[in-house]
Amino acid sequence: MNNHDKKYMQMALAEARKAYQQAEVPIGAVVVCNDRVVGSGFNRREQTQDPTSHAEIIALKEAAKEEASWRLEECQLYVTLEPCPMCAGAVLQSRIKRIVFAARDPKAGAVKSLYQLLDDDRFNHQVEVVEGVMKDEAAQLLKKFFRELRSRKDG
Questions:
Q1: pLDDT values of the chain reduced to their tens digit, one per residue, 155 residues
Q2: Exactly one of 56, 62, 67, 82 is catalytic; which is it?
Q3: How much is the pLDDT for 152?
Q4: DSSP class of residue 73?
Q5: C-alpha span between 10 and 56 (Å, rounded)
Q6: What is the CA radius of gyration of the chain?
Q7: Rounded distance, CA 92 to CA 145, Å?
Q8: How large is the angle between the packed helices 55-67 and 3-21, nearest 10 degrees?
Q9: Could you tell me how many helices (H) and strands (E) the chain has, helices first?
Q10: Residue 148: CA atoms inside 13 Å, Cβ hemisphere, count?
């Protein structure tokens, strides 16, 4: 982990906290191109009732708009939870160079846990993957959210 990775993961965690404050699953993402944040997002599925409103999708769309290109070949994605198959597919489609994620997702992770889509050489693009940057902080936020959600349902 380098200082840049920690700096941008802190920004992704700030996005995740925004989701938490809005009763959304606390996952956040930022896209960085040439040491400049060009996209950010947090989960908004409940707000939008849109199954594609994941943090990564929102951040990638914002980055593509900012860069005026769907090709984000010089960009990196920082996300607090390992991407699901949909988001990993979007990462491949956007040609992101590198992804840094905090915590693994044993139920839906498509980068390391269940599937390894980003380094599958059957695709025409592979992505450098770094995992575990600030994983404890990201995991604690998720655990707190789901613990509170369960207690609201039980109470």
A1: 688 999 999 999 999 999 999 999 999 999 999 999 999 999 999 999 999 999 999 999 999 999 999 999 999 999 999 999 999 999 999 999 999 999 999 999 999 999 999 999 999 999 999 999 999 999 999 999 999 988 887 75
A2: 56
A3: 81
A4: T
A5: 15
A6: 15
A7: 29
A8: 120
A9: 5, 5
A10: 12
Tokens encoding 90: 């979007």
Q: Is 150 exposed, middle or buried (0-12, 13-18, 19+ CB in 10 A)?
A: exposed
Biggest CA–CA distance in the chain, Å, is 50
The question of whether 56 is a catalytic residue gets the answer: yes
One-letter identity of residue 16? A
Could you tell me the two tokens for 72? 């984000």
- Kindly give the pairing relationship between strand 28-33 and strand 36-42: antiparallel
Length of the chain, in residues: 155
pLDDT of residue 119: 94
Within 111-154, strands assigned E span: 128-131
Structure tokens, 19: 């989701």
